[in-house]
Design a protein that fits this description.
Layout (H helix, E strand, L loop, with lengths): L27 H15 L5 E3 L9 E4 L16 E10 L4 E8 L2 E11 L1 E7 L5 E7 H14 L14 E3 H11 L1
Antiparallel strand pairs: 1-2, 2-3, 3-6, 4-5, 5-8, 6-7
């Protein structure tokens, strides 16, 4: 039975753990984690989710970019399960843009991320996949991949002045768009 899980909040120890490698894509435990992640993400306003956010410290993320209240201009991408993901930058160019996190509600920050990355992972059918992600999708991937390393997006900001409340972010977004 799929369940919508509680999302671990900043301060939860699981968000600061390095996640374990998934040994078997087909194990009942892995399948259960994936289904719970899908259900939890679908009920959220998020565009991605990492297993540690549902208190499971294993190397699984889902990137599911779609326009939401939190990200109205997000491009549409089918939810993509990525097991044991990794990436390499294809350019040293980083861009700062706004991020938020389901584990840190009410806060946004400007975070520098690589603009173009090559991503490798195993999909939920056990296939090895490589993709090139750019811009927003690359940002979401890097944000979720950080969770697997025990990091949150606030660890990557350049200055505390780059942190604002979500209510101020929406005021800024409304004025500038």
């Amino acid at each position: 039975m799929n369940q919508v899980c509680e999302i671990a909040q900043l301060g939860a120890k699981v968000l600061r753990q390095v996640s374990e490698t998934v040994a078997s894509v087909d194990s009942p435990e892995t399948r259960r984690i994936i289904e719970d992640m899908k259900s939890t993400l679908a009920k959220s306003e998020g565009v991605g989710l990492a297993a540690p956010q549902i208190s499971r410290p294993v190397r699984i993320i889902i990137v599911a970019s779609r326009p939401t209240v939190r990200y109205p201009k997000a491009p549409l991408m089918d939810p993509t399960v990525m097991i044991n993901p990794s990436f390499e930058p294809l350019s040293p160019v980083k861009e700062k843009d706004w991020e938020g996190c389901l584990s840190i509600p009410g806060v946004r920050a400007l975070v520098p991320r690589f603009k173009v990355i090559k991503v490798s992972y195993t999909d939920e059918d056990g296939n090895f996949i490589e993709h090139i992600f750019e811009d927003f999708i690359a940002r979401v991937f890097q944000h979720e991949a950080d969770h697997l390393e025990g990091k949150v997006y606030l660890d990557s900001i350049e200055s505390s002045v780059d942190i604002i409340s979500e209510s101020e972010y929406f005021k800024l977004f409304t004025r500038n768009n």
